[in-house]
Write a structure and sequence with these properties.
Blueprint: H1 7-15, E1 23-25, E2 28-30, E3 37-41, E4 48-53, H2 57-72, H3 81-97, H4 99-110, H5 114-135, E5 142-144, E6 150-158, E7 161-165, H6 171-184, E8 188-192, H7 199-210, E9 218-220, H8 225-234, E10 240-244, H9 247-259, E11 264-268, E12 274-277, H10 284-296, E13 308-312, H11 313-329, H12 348-363, E14 367-370, E15 374-375, E16 383-384, E17 387-390, H13 397-400, E18 407-413, H14 416-424, E19 428-429, E20 431-435, H15 439-448, E21 453-456, E22 471-472, E23 475-476, E24 489-497
Parallel strand pairs: 7-8, 7-10, 8-9, 10-11, 12-13, 12-20, 13-18, 17-18, 20-21
Antiparallel strand pairs: 1-2, 3-4, 5-6, 6-24, 11-23, 14-17, 15-16, 19-22
């Protein structure tokens, strides 16, 4: 997206968008077998964007059959690695060529600021697909050490048909984190996007075929979790499910696996990230700015959002004042305005859920220091002001449950050991951060925190080369990096006896 584009220009382009609103099966668009649709409502203004095909079990079955046929005949799974690489790279090119269209779809569908969609999300999608495309012909099989009378090879083979169920907060990026490694390793896929934000995944699948991905390799079935999602989780011919979403639904997919064909399941089920700021943090202004963006970016709808601010008592008031200053300067507005920094909650259900948590925090005795209310109600959209709680105890609901909104819980501590204890006192273990000038404190805390990633003197840093995933009830398995490819491959040992 050009930096010169104005809100008027973007609104004009948005009005001219055509929405792909059907299932994408076997390389073709198709209505749901039942003929059912559901309204795709924009959180920007509460208006219906389009009616989307409501896929159910029959549609999932058609998609799985298309994916299985594509896998078995080898049109993708047995294609030369160099050719598969070129297809994924061309797909990344097309995503970049259609970046403004995809960014507008993402913003209209999900409510995030267009600046974030255009400068963060869509470029990250293209980078992810290109990164895994580049990795295709760089991954080697292994030869085991044996005696002179044998050769033992360990071969990595694609699993087959991968089902992916992705969330609404980063609709296309979370799908890309699964599509990249799954397709790079030669699998076929069926994706069920979140019903709140299905539009970019459907469009991206169309671009994949345009890039040369054979028909049937990538299929998209929009619909609801209890219908399409469950059908995919229970399908007897799906070899693995990759899921990002709530812990409640993640546990259902484990249940579906056990009750069907024991398909492999990988889960990323959110977090309650402790952002630990010690009194000797090297730069309190930097820590405050990072802490504000850690919870207010993407309206707080981030699985690793820094929702628990753990602050050493001696600097708590000073730090909190600086964080609130950043929050008060944050521009909440029309997501199609390039100047907007915080957009809308994804739908009215999520908005009411977050407002309910704010009410719960007050009723349990936390002090509401900033925000806490719905704003811009006159637009018809779903907006909540940046919200900060002080005097939070870690056993309070707002400190234990994932709110998925712009709500910060501030908890004080007296020493590093207490900070780590509070940080680990949660069912989640996705991420954590530590701010200190003492390298010993940093290393000790990083080792002791039960999290998949620990940032030191920064927040939410990383690249495609670094894995992302959690401990405990944040799930298991990793997205990003070469480690993600492990989820979509099986190791086969071939032992050759020499005579």
């Amino acid at each position: 997206m050009s930096a010169a584009l104005s809100i008027e220009s973007l609104k004009t382009q948005a009005q001219g968008l055509s929405f792909r609103n059907q299932a994408f099966i076997g390389g073709q668009f198709a209505d749901a077998a039942s003929g059912k649709t559901f309204d795709c409502v924009s959180p920007v203004d509460g208006k219906v964007l389009t009616a989307v095909a409501a896929g159910e079990a029959e549609d999932v079955d058609r998609a799985v059959k298309a994916a299985r046929a594509a896998f078995e005949d080898g049109r993708w799974s047995r294609q030369h690695p160099a050719k598969r690489k070129k297809v994924l790279q061309r797909w990344a090119d097309l995503i970049e060529e259609h970046a403004t269209e995809l960014a507008l779809l993402e913003t209209l569908d999900m409510g995030k600021p267009i600046g974030d969609s255009a400068r963060i999300d869509i470029p990250a999608v293209a980078n992810c697909i290109r990164w895994y495309g580049e990795a295709i012909d760089k991954i080697y099989d292994e030869v085991a050490p044996t005696g002179d009378n044998a050769v033992a090879m360990m071969l990595r083979e694609p699993l087959g048909v991968i089902g992916a169920v992705v969330p609404w907060n980063f609709p296309l990026l979370m799908a890309a984190w699964k599509m990249g490694p799954a397709l790079a390793t030669g699998n076929s896929m069926v994706i069920k996007p979140a019903e709140q934000s299905p539009l970019t995944v459907i469009r991206a699948a169309e671009l994949a075929v345009e890039a040369g991905l054979p028909e049937g390799v990538l299929n998209v079935v929009p619909g609801f979790g209890e219908t399409a999602g469950q059908a995919l989780g229970r399908h007897m011919d799906v070899d693995a499910i990759a899921f990002t979403g709530s812990g409640e639904v993640g546990k259902l997919f484990m249940k579906y696996s056990g009750e069907s064909n024991m398909k492999r399941v990988s889960l990323e089920c959110g977090g309650k990230t402790p952002n630990i700021v010690m009194a000797d943090a090297p730069d309190l202004d930097a820590a405050a700015t990072a802490a504000a963006w850690a919870i207010f970016f993407n309206q707080g709808e981030v699985c690793n959002a820094g929702s628990r601010l753990l602050v050493e008592e001696s600097v708590k008031d000073e730090l909190l004042e600086r964080i609130m200053k950043v929050g008060q300067q944050m521009r909440i507005g029309d997501p199609l305005d390039p100047a907007t920094q915080m957009g809308a909650m994804v739908d009215d259900t999520q908005m009411e859920r977050v407002l309910g948590y704010i009410e719960k925090g007050q009723s349990e005795g936390a002090r509401l220091a900033m925000g806490g209310e719905r704003v811009m109600a006159e637009t018809g959209g779903y907006y909540i002001a940046p919200t900060v709680f002080d005097n939070v105890k870690n056993d309070m609901t707002i400190a234990q449950e994932e709110i998925f909104g712009p709500v910060l819980s501030t908890i004080s501590f007296s020493d590093p050991e207490e900070a780590v204890r509070i940080g680990n006192d949660t069912i989640y273990g996705l991420a954590a951060a530590v701010w200190t000038s003492d390298i010993n404190k940093a290393h000790k805390a990083a080792k002791a925190l039960r999290s998949g990633v620990v940032w030191v003197n920064c927040f939410d840093a990383g690249e495609m080369s670094t894995p992302f995933g959690g401990f405990k009830q944040s799930g298991f398995g990793r997205d990003k990096s070469l480690h993600a490819m492990d989820k979509y491959t099986e190791v086969k040992t071939v032992w050759i006896e020499l005579h």
